[in-house]
Design goal:
The protein starts with 19 loop residues before the first helix and ends in a 7-residue tail after the last helix. It has one domain. It is mainly alpha-helical. The N terminus is likely disordered. Helix 4 runs antiparallel to helix 6. The longest helix has 27 residues. It has a two-stranded antiparallel sheet with strand order 1-2. The chain is 60% helix and 3% strand. It is built from 8 helices and 2 strands, in the order H-H-H-H-H-H-E-E-H-H. The radius of gyration is 19 Å and the shape is globular.
Amino acid sequence: MFPPIFPIYIAALAPLHPYAPLVWLSGVICLWLTRYTHQLGQRWGSVFYLLSAMVRPLGMLLIAIGWFALYAPEPGYVMPGVTVGWLPRANLTDVLCWLAIALFSGLGIWAVVTLGLRRSFLFRHADDPLTTIGPYAIMRHPQFLSVIGMTFFGNRLFNPAGFPTLAYGAYHHSLDANWVLFTVALWLLAILEDRELAAHFGEEYEEYAQKVPRLFPN
């Protein structure tokens, strides 16, 4: 078997498992609060950038904690045919899932390198130009697609029960249901960012949006 790299089973996060959807949703809300760079940045100035530099990393951390908590239903819990924290099959399906995760991870890294560490993880300045090169020439929100893809294929590797169940007195969330809600949340976040960018860049962004799809490449 391969080592437990992802999905990662962290027993210490087991107490958060019942609240995992609220944790990652709080992270999405934090990202939403930092989307209005061109409105709040111009209005609040350095105060907004300082808050964004704190809230944006917090949002990413909450999303990661929420998803890892989903993989920790209870310490030592083992579903039929699945050893928690390790790849259950180590067969061709696992290999293909790992390849897909690697590809989506590469997409995310490519997007971060293209956009820059500051704009990716801290704050985006109101004077920053519109980025239309690299992965942003293929889709408008490659970082969102990267996370959506990694969580989807991570779910295929972990392969828990398809629906919420009560087992051994503990509640277990459906990863697939969480993934659907997570994807919808990021899609809505992408729409809000599109509107904010269109209001700031005007015709430049409208022409860009007409040529480049939001999340899924043509």
